[in-house]
Design brief:
CATH architecture: 3-Layer(aba) Sandwich
Distance between the termini: 41 Å
Radius of gyration: 18 Å
Largest sheet: 8 strands, mixed
CATH class: Alpha Beta
Number of helices: 11
Number of strands: 10
Shape: globular
Strand order of the largest sheet: 3-2-1-4-5-6-9-10
CATH superfamily: NAD(P)-binding Rossmann-like Domain
Low-confidence stretches: 223-229, 311-323
Helix content: 40-55%
């Protein structure tokens, strides 16, 4: 069901609001940052590459000369980088109104690790954003209408939280690891709303997915080689849409008065691959409150960060054994 046929023209003015978009140097993140800046928000383009991040800022300013946009370096594969980012933001901002946890890597052919010893997809897509959200919580709570949006994926439907091997040390399967990370992001969004309601944090926490958007995620992850990927590219024009269209569910979740806490939004077309924003299907494993509670506890242990507590330098060495 389409939510009132929502389009970019329906997005409320974001003048006077501040937003952080992770992974905003390209793809969905760039389109999200561009739309928010065009609507008046003060936008922080958070990305790993300074060159690409500044290029994104320059492109946004070229398209929207009045845009209030700046680059801040953030490497979600490093808890130290996350902590430094959060401290810089705290030093320069009274409050943050909107956090969009968008950045991600997809289905890397070989197992790689973050700076802290986590499997790269789980560490970047999920744990980095978990730590970031926790450390920005004080700034979010100073906003009158704070929102957090987590980017999940259709892939969450095939995911499972493998508590016996979260970091894929026993056996690494690229797609399995990606699905787990995107399931974790959806579980995180729902659990964050539960905890906000319980503790009075005042957040609206929800999630979105882009359907099948044409971005650099596939070329930068599994690549475009192999029979499956060649077939995928041939079918792409029929089942996919642009990055700008793929960003619409995120923008709806981030700005619409109709977006509710613990909601999940995606395209309304066939198999939710493209179309206008609508309420998206949430797989049963994403609704398991016991799994959510256990994952939250383990995530705090792995990152060394608890929600509502002051940010501290991550004690990497102390977590290496827990990371497996």
């Amino acid at each position: 069901m389409t939510i009132n046929g929502w389009t970019i023209a329906d997005m409320p003015s974001q003048a006077g609001r501040s937003a952080i978009v992770t992974g905003a140097s390209g793809g969905l993140g760039f389109e999200t940052a561009l739309a928010l800046a065009a609507s008046g928000a003060e936008v922080i383009v958070a990305a790993r590459s300074a060159n690409k991040g500044q290029e994104a800022v320059d492109r946004i300013r070229a398209l929207c000369p009045a845009a209030k946009v700046a680059f801040e370096r953030l490497d979600l594969a490093s808890l130290a980088s996350v902590a430094h980012f959060a401290r810089r933001l705290a030093a320069g901002h009274e409050a943050i109104d909107l956090l969009i946890n968008n950045a991600g890597v997809m289905s890397l052919p070989k197992r790689r690790m973050t700076a802290d010893g986590f499997e790269l997809q789980f560490g970047t897509n999920y744990l980095g954003h978990f730590a970031l959200t926790a450390q920005l919580l004080p700034l979010l709570r100073r906003s009158q209408r704070p929102r957090v949006v987590n980017l999940s994926s259709l892939a969450h439907r095939n995911g499972a939280i493998r508590f016996d091997d979260l970091q894929s040390t026993r056996r690494y399967r690229p797609w399995q690891a990606y699905c787990q990370s995107k399931l974790a992001m959806l579980i995180f969004a729902v659990e964050l709303q539960r905890r906000s309601d319980a503790h009075g944090w005042g957040l609206i926490s929800n999630a979105a997915h882009p359907g099948y958007a044409r971005t650099d995620l596939i070329p930068n992850g599994p690549g475009t080689g192999g029979f499956f990927m060649r077939i995928n590219l041939l079918l792409q024009p029929l089942v996919s849409h642009s990055a700008a269209a793929g960003a619409l569910p995120t923008l709806f979740a981030a700005t619409s008065p109709e977006a509710r806490g613990a909601g999940y939004y995606g395209p309304n077309g066939f198999s939710e691959m493209k179309g206008q924003p609508a309420a998206a299907y949430i797989a049963p494993q994403a609704k398991d409150a016991a799994v959510a509670k256990r994952l939250w506890t383990i995530s705090e242990q792995l990152t060394g960060i608890s929600f509502g507590m002051p940010a501290a330098e991550p004690a990497v060495a102390d977590r290496r054994s827990a990371a497996s």
